[in-house]
Amino acid sequence: MEDQKLKKTPLNAIEHELGGKMVDFGGWELPVQFSGILEEHAAVREHAGLFDVSHMGELTVKGPEALALLQRATCNDVSKLENGRAQYNGLLYPTAGFVDDIVVYQHSVDDFFVVVNASNSDKDFEWLADAAKGMDVDVRNVSADYAQLALQGPEAERLLQPMTDVGLGSIKYYRFGTGNVDGVPAIVSRTGYTGEDGFEIYVASSEGLRIMRKLIGAGAKPCGLGARDTLRLEAKMALYGNDIDETTTPLEADLGWMVKVEKGEFFGRDVLQREKAEGPRRKLAGFEMVDRGIARHGYPVVEGGEEIGVVTSGTHSPTLKKAIGLAYLPLDKSTPGTEFTVLIRGKETRARVVPTPFYKRAK
Amino acid sequence: MTPEDSRYAKSHEYVHPEAGDIAVIGITDYAQKELGDVVFVELPAIGTELELGDEFGSIESVKAVSELFSPVSGEVIEINEALTDKPELVNTDPYGDGWMMKLRLSVPDEVDELMTAEEYEEYVEKESGH
């Protein structure tokens, strides 16, 4: 835990102060929990929770060919964005496997802000910079410049509004505004990784600590990575490295809604066109345990002594109070109602495919 | 405080001796804190013969699963059925209502080989690096 090599976010000090149980998360020292995962999870579903997500990476893509670069490197249609809107997207290899899953913010058609996974930020930057060669576009890795806070829960707007001149009421889901938060320039988007209403706030690294203190003072509950994982899984949001990676395509990952093959040429397009026509060979499906136990990442799905799939995420759902998870299953076994067998530490255990998301908030 | 009337294993189980070579087994307060919110405890069937070091079950917290190892040898004569519906008892009362199983010890002397409360506290201090 005292490993000096671990990277620290600008909010590290307050996390120690608040009694965060710190762990090594992909090379970053981050809190897995403060008061407890169940309590933090409930706070986000019912009130407001605050996450330090400053480890996430940020890239800027600017220039006359910024849009052209993003169109080529991703599967969703970036041309559909408007200023002040954000879009979930996949950065793909020519194999259609994920370099990363990302959120693209459009300031203007030649100025994009791209939010990427922490452990992928260097890789993503190099991949994009490489793809940009010969194009009139400037790609920068600005990850170190930003602190990122995620304020999530039904009370998020009420807590944040007094601290900002950004009119939160007019920011719809997956849109953002720029203005001041606690007197300093910020990007505020109505986005998150919890399935709950809420905002993500980007400010200069040096300003994050003060804003975090104020939000906690206003009543937001500090939350750790543990609750972040149970919340995102209930909402069936993919976790890079668990549910998706360079070996999985967006269609396999049940993210077909963000694959726009009609938009023109992009990395992986031919593979995705074929998969669309023929169907992917496997699909990420949500399941509930029928027998007792929790099937976790990496546990094999078996049939007749053969491995036919694999669990990518699994946990106890605090909201539903049952064991849930995601698994890659053969396409014909991925429809709701289908039962299958998972080996939990060698023991055959039954699970059943269910519709997802597991949790959807009341509007 | 770590109860003085029990003995402790490096794998963080406690053994609380009762009359007639019976012992109650559970996990320590330190162990439950490390695990976080416990949501499922898998225990052995009554009648199972356990050797020292055998895996006797598993404990799932929200964030991870851990195997449970028997710190002594014996026959399982009772398990804590209350944990089926209330696994959180392991968090709230690890040395009391959060107990896991009762064994009839087959090698009662094994208990003396385990750490005392004081030794266990020193061990935990070293392990957690504080």
Fold and architecture overview:
The complex is a heterodimer of chains A (363) and B (130). With 363 residues, chain A is an alpha+beta fold. Chain A has helices spanning 12-17, 37-46, 66-73, 121-131, 156-160, 208-217, 225-234, 269-278; strands at 7-8, 21-25, 28-33, 49-52, 57-62, 85-92, 98-108, 111-116, 138-141, 146-152, 176-181, 184-189, 198-204, 221-223, 282-289, 300-303, 306-317, 322-330, 339-344, 347-353. In chain A, the strands form four sheets. Chain A has a six-stranded mixed β-sheet. In chain A, strands 15-18-17-16-19-20 form a six-stranded antiparallel β-barrel. Chain A has a five-stranded antiparallel β-sheet with strand order 6-7-8-5-9, covered by helices on one side. The longest helix of chain A is centred in the middle third of the chain and has 11 residues, at 121-131. Chain A is globular, with a radius of gyration of 20 Å. The mean pLDDT of chain B is 94. Helices cover 24% and strands 34% of the residues of chain B. In chain B, the strands form two sheets. Chain B has a six-stranded antiparallel β-sheet. A three-stranded antiparallel β-sheet of chain B has the order 4-6-7.
